Amino acid sequence: MASGFVPAMRRTGLVLIATVVVFSALAAANAVPVGELSVGEIEEELQKCPLVEALNEHKRATIPETTSLTSKIFSVLFPGSPAVNALLATLYISGPPNFLLALCPPNIDPSSLSVMVAFAVGGLLGDTLFHLLPEIFLGEDSPEHVRFVMVEPNRNLLLGVGIMVGFFTFVAMDKTLRIATGGEGHDHSRSHSHAGDSQSQAVTTGAQQTSDNGLKRRKPTTTQQHEPSTSTKNEKEINPSVKLGGYLNLIADFTHNITDGLAMSSSFYASPTIGATTTVAVFFHEIPHEVGDFALLVQSGFSKRKAMGAQFVTAVGAFLGTLIGIAVQEFSGHGPDATSTGSDAAGAAAGLFGTSLTWGDMLLPFTAGTFLYVGTVSVIPELLETSKNKAVEIRKTVVQFLAVAVGAGIMLAISWD
């Protein structure tokens, strides 16, 4: 019977099958009215239906006996509970990218980051579209039994609100930073290019002064002896607005890391797969993000050592966000000891605006909204910047699109496997 119904399930869709099974299971068991059951209890009753049991047997019989390489790697990296795995993931995304800064020269060329940024865009958008959004609205599949989707319109609306809140939270952060810095946003490539333009203007001005004073070239000894000290003094005298921009960038980076920590906790409490893929996506994004912030701090007057120290301090924000997310998940009943008992019915009735959602359920949509902003509004404008050399720009665009495809492809491959 199972082999006959599986193709039909694929053709007609899971919702129709779920509707038929709900009525048949409840009618056969003479169960209490559906309105008095929690989502977990309805799932339990469905699993007792003969048709579902047959489908479960078919699923267990056709599941691959060997686990994939990515599953083995993730099981080693994340061996504990959702809370422990979230803390481990935060350590992974905060530690290595900051240690890599020791290998970066202070005068790093921002154009060298364009391919890495494109790769990060593909990873972030791939994780959002392939993992987070399906998980938010449909839930995670189980390897041992079939799952059914309970359509709850108001629940979906609140999840959409959570995504929008996450998106516009980053809009507000970016707007506030632009107002505080007089129009300069948290844009790494633009800040680097502005600094490069000011340096080139200084070189041009110096060249013009040298040509204007060509008649005084016979006095190079005295002037050249005093010029180094003067130039060194000018280099140390950083514009106060540039210094302010560096400190505001640290504040924005700290807040951004808090949202990364929330992403770690919410994703691992959703499922191990979502947690692992979110970690990979955030890790890919953190490397160019940290390098860009490091270069901005150096241009703001920080020494290389102080810039690295400041970046490590902002990494505390990621752990703070993770701890906040863990606390929200545990207090909302999503801990590892949470079970689908009769108390869940009361919890469902007391959910957000009469739905089955809790505050912990809203963290994952918030994360998806922030990822959408970072992957589109915040980063893609950097990839849209072009120069007048069309041949160079065409080659660079092709490489960037390939990098986006590779980043998204990795996310798709992990999800597919």
TrEMBL record:
Which classification does the entry list for the species?
A: Eukaryota, Fungi, Dikarya, Ascomycota, Pezizomycotina
- Is Signal one of the keywords UniProt gives this record? yes
Molecular-function GO terms, alphabetical: zinc ion transmembrane transporter activity
Extract the signal peptide range: 1-31
Provide the transmembrane region boundaries. 73-93, 113-133, 153-173, 309-328, 362-385, 397-416
InterPro entries given in the database record = ZIP
GO BP annotations listed: intracellular zinc ion homeostasis
Q: What is this protein called?
A: ZIP Zinc transporter
- Region feature Disordered, mapped onto this chain: 182-238
Which species does this protein come from?
Aspergillus chevalieri
Whether Transmembrane helix counts among this entry's keywords is yes
* Assigned keywords, A-Z: Membrane, Signal, Transmembrane, Transmembrane helix
Membrane-topology descriptor: Multi-pass membrane protein
Give compartment(s): Membrane
Q: Output compositional bias ranges, type Polar residues.
A: 196-213, 221-232
